[in-house]
Design a protein that fits this description.
Blueprint lengths: L2 E5 L2 E4 L4 E8 L7 E7 L6 E6 L5 E3 L7 E6 L4 E6 L8 E8 L9 E4 L3 E6 L1
């Protein structure tokens, strides 16, 4: 059974940083593209960043230059380093695994339960 478990969310002041982690089990992690999505109250779930199985990143415009996605295949874990956080980054952040690096939700077969990130202004 595939499990993705996010951690690292919390409350941070604007301009601050957080590092999210997503630990996986039950899948051949190194063969999967991994992604982060987020969903704010009343909004659609949106793409944040993804990393291919070979380590190539892809970012949404809102994340470019502020967020960094990385992966550690030895630990079956993907990370999202978030710097210069803004109030509009407040959302539940979800980790996802899929066969190809894409910005579309439909490309990812497995999802975590999410972790809350709240940025105070």
């Amino acid at each position: 059974q595939v499990q993705l478990v996010e951690s690292g969310g919390g409350l941070v002041q604007g301009g601050g940083s957080l590092r999210l982690s997503c630990a996986s089990s039950g899948l051949s992690f190194s063969n999967y593209a991994m992604a982060w999505f987020r969903q704010a109250p009343g909004k659609e779930r949106e793409f944040v960043a993804a990393i291919s199985a070979s380590g190539s990143p892809l970012y949404a415009g809102s994340a470019e230059g502020r967020f960094t996605i990385s992966r550690d295949n030895a630990k079956n874990t993907v990370y999202l380093q978030m710097d210069s956080l803004k109030s509009e980054d407040t959302a539940v952040y979800y980790c996802a695994a899929g066969s190809r690096i894409m910005a579309s939700k439909s490309s990812y077969a497995y999802w975590g339960q999410g972790t809350q990130v709240t940025v105070s202004s």
